[in-house]
TrEMBL record, chains A, B:
Record's subcellular location: Cytoplasm; Nucleus
Primary location group: cytoplasm
Function: Phosphatase that hydrolyzes imidodiphosphate, 3-phosphohistidine and 6-phospholysine. Has broad substrate specificity and can also hydrolyze inorganic diphosphate, but with lower efficiency.
Keyword list, A-Z: Cytoplasm, Hydrolase, Magnesium, Metal-binding, Nucleus
EC number: 3.6.1.1
Protein name in the entry: Phospholysine phosphohistidine inorganic pyrophosphate phosphatase
Keyword Magnesium: yes
InterPro entries: HAD-like_sf, HAD-SF_hydro_IIA, HAD_sf, LHPP/HDHD2
């Protein structure tokens, strides 16, 4: 691997993950990972552009940023690329009205979205809201559509909380894919479009970013 | 296709499905499908051996047979091949102690099974018991095992109730497979072993059965 000086030569921007990189989520707002508050501060003082790029889909950006600021991070809502706003843009562009299989914490991101007579399903990390009834409702909506559209905010398998491992959105996305014989459209990491939109927001090309 | 006389020539036994063939499940015990009560009676009066072969995993055999008898069917518990007893045999043979992600209605089938310190998961059509908490418990059990074993009673996508389409065990099996990066062992249809055990019970070879 090239030495750091050389690797950083053409670098203009940095994308930072949040959960598991800046902080560990959990009861009471989670905890900052050692050194990360200062690392973000130093990056922001440097000539590099910084963008936060997360698959967090249990909380709205407002809630997430509030939590991080309380932990000492210099971060604002406008600096965050998250899957819910990206999904909203897709819904508007394609005239889609979703049944929302999501956590109540992220529902405010969809305030401007028409959810009457659903013609698609949006699934996110819903946690306890992944009840049989709710998952079955989403399934029934999909089965009644001629061209079922399932939009998944990420496809993570699981994440770690202070209380233990927790099922993420991916397993439930797979459940609906199998039940309906369809393939979900993933919005969020690892979708290249998602990273591109984060880079566009800071005006940096992929080869100039880390 | 050969005429019936010829096709029936070497026939010695018949395997009959139950749900969707003999009756439709639903509120109030379901309803017999037209002609099926009499068809079973006629088969039993014939020289053919009859065995009922079901993937029903929400009810114990006792409950299922009780329901069918109330609808007029000539059927007894001993004539039914079902996945729960087949799974119990596997658990005993391999010294497995399951975490049971199942419907309360079928729990009695596992009365003789040691469920302390689970070293595997058995998943069945659990209906409302597929809460996030329960599915996550099963996931955590599997993730703590060096060699995670997931036994699934069938892998059906969905079934029809009078109230609409309902998610079956298959989608939840897929969810756990994806979350843990494993492959489930399916007990029940369409596993060849399951059909073989049904045929063995009536002493009939595969080529002699319909």
């Amino acid at each position: 691997m090239a030495p750091w000086g050389k690797r950083l030569a053409g670098l203009r921007g940095v994308l930072l993950d949040i959960s598991g990189v800046l902080y560990d989520s959990g009861a009471g707002g989670g905890t900052a990972i050692a050194g990360s508050v200062e690392a973000v501060a130093r990056l922001k003082r440097s000539r590099l552009k910084v963008r936060f790029c997360t698959n967090e889909s249990q909380k709205s950006r407002a809630e997430l940023v509030g939590q991080l600021r309380r932990l000492g991070f210099d971060i604002s809502e406008e600096e965050v690329t998250a899957p819910a706003p990206a999904a909203c843009q897709i819904l508007k562009e394609r005239g889609l009205r979703p049944y929302l299989l999501i956590h109540d914490g992220v529902r405010s991101e969809f305030d401007q979205i028409d959810t009457s007579s659903p013609n698609c399903v949006v699934i996110a990390d819903a946690g306890e809201s992944f009840s049989y009834q709710n998952v079955n409702n989403a399934f029934q909506v999909l089965m009644e559509l001629e061209n079922p559209v399932l939009i998944s905010l990420g496809k993570g398998r699981y994440y770690k909380e202070t209380s233990g491992l927790m099922l993420d959105v991916g397993p439930y996305m797979k459940a609906l894919e199998y039940a309906c014989g369809i393939k979900a459209e993933v919005v969020g990491k690892p979708s290249p479009e998602f990273f591109k939109s984060a880079l566009q927001a800071i005006g940096v090309e992929a080869h100039q970013a880390q």
